[in-house]
Amino acid sequence: MDVVLGMDFGGTKIALAICGLDGRCLAQQVLVTNPDTGGDAVLERGISASRALLALSGDHHDLVSVGVSTIGIPREDRVELAPAIPGWEHVGLARTVTTAFGVPVRVVTDVKAAATAEARWGSLSGSDPAIYLNLGTGLAAAILVGGRVLDGAHGASGEIGYNVVAPSDLGFDIGSRPMLEHTVSGMALAAHGSRALGRTVTAEQVFEAAPSDPELDAMVGTLIDELSSHLVNLVIAVDPDRVAVGGGMVRSWGRIRGPLEHALSRGVPFPPELVLANYPFDAPLVGALALAAEAAGASWAGGPVFPQEKAEARRPL
After folding, report:
1. Residues 166-185: tens digit of each pLDDT
2. Do residues 178 and 100 both lie within one domain?
3. C-alpha span between 42 and 9 (Å, rounded)
4. Cβ-count burial of 301 within 10 angstroms (0-12 exposed, 13-18 middle, 19+ buried)?
5. In terms of Cα–Cα distance, which of 106, 78, 80 is closest to 92?
6. Domain for residue 104, yes or no?
7. Residue 71 sits in which domain range?
8. 149 contacts 244 by C-beta, under 8 angstroms
9. Measured between alpha carbons, how far is 205 from 209 in angstroms, rounded to an integer?
10. CA atoms of 146 and 278, how far apart (whole Å)
11. Together in a domain, 259 and 218
């Protein structure tokens, strides 16, 4: 059987999946990124785990293509705008993965891969224009026009994590001014929560503890307010039909959805529909599989088919 491999390199996890050309998922694995080990080590762990997953899926399976999604903007010999993994800026993803597997490889930014998956088979199907908003370790968005993701002149369209936070920050370069991602992201919330509690916690744990802790509750409220302000401005600029939200923080969708809907309904001339992504936690991986399927000449009318237990795990709390 010919199979394709999807690889998603995120700031906190590496997600892998193998699918047949009929779209049926045969094997999956999720690894902790361990970004402190450095970019080369992270990439090697992903490749080694992929080889092991291929071996486990069966000797009769022949890999024909690979799709890779990644934080940052992938180039031929580096990845730009990816500070979450030290040394990732020096990694040549497509070149290294091609050498490792000897098959066609396609590489794309994770949020753009996610938007592609949602446009083809998910919550943004038929919406034009549309916005995919990713609330994960970092913060980013993708704009869909005519069913296609807007790349931008440098491939950096939608990198709203770099938004200017205050007028006083204007005129300073990116490396020396606050950015929106420093306040609005899972990484930021985990850091602020850890300082407040005096121990290491995750963004998910901050959301869980917030209802009973006034300081953490105010912290979550500030994050949502900042996000709402920038989302309103983005929506006014694009005038989308629908906004889909995905990423690790949508596990707390019950806390996030109401304030975002309120901000959009009051602050936008023509408020779009706000929906949860169909693939809330693994849209970048699904988008990577879509790239691999394209490279293999396969057409998946309904998208990849995951085992039922994996589908259940994708549901937000």
Report:
1. 999 999 998 899 999 999 99
2. no
3. 8
4. exposed
5. 78
6. yes
7. 2-110+281-313
8. no
9. 6
10. 19
11. yes
Return the axis-axis angle of helices 214-238 and 186-197, rounded to nearest 10°. 160
194 to each of 60, 102, 198, 215, 255, how far by Cα in Å?
48, 43, 6, 12, 20
pLDDT digits (tens, 9 = 90+) for 242-289: 999 999 999 999 999 999 999 999 999 999 999 999 999 999 999 999
Closest alpha carbon to 178 in 187, 186, 189, 167:
167
For 98-128, give the DSSP string. Answer: HHHH-S-EEEEEHHHHHHHHHHHHSTTTT-S
Q: Which residue has the tokens 């929506």?
A: 235
Q: Which of 311, 296, 316, 291 is nearest to 28 (CA)?
A: 311
Look up residue 77 and give its amino acid: D
Helix axes 283-295, 110-121, angle to 10 degrees: 80
285 & 240 share domain: no
* 100 burial via Cβ count (<10 Å: 0-12, 13-18, 19+): middle
Structure token digits, residue 67: 């799709």
| Residue 73 forms part of a structural domain | yes
What pLDDT, on the 0 to 100 scale, is given for residue 175? Answer: 84
- Split into its structural domains, the chain has a count of 2
Q: What DSSP state is assigned to residue 230? A: H
Give the model's pLDDT for residue 308: 60
Residues of the chain with pLDDT under 70: 58-59, 308-317
In the chain, what is the straight-line distance between the N-terminal and C-terminal CA atoms, in Å? 37
Q: What is the pLDDT of residue 299?
A: 87
CATH number at residue 166: 3.30.420.40
- 232 plus 294 within the same structural domain: no
- pLDDT of amino acid 316: 41
Let me know: does 239 contact 76? Beta carbons within 8 Å.
Answer: no
23 three-class SS: coil
3-state class (DSSP) for residue 19:
strand
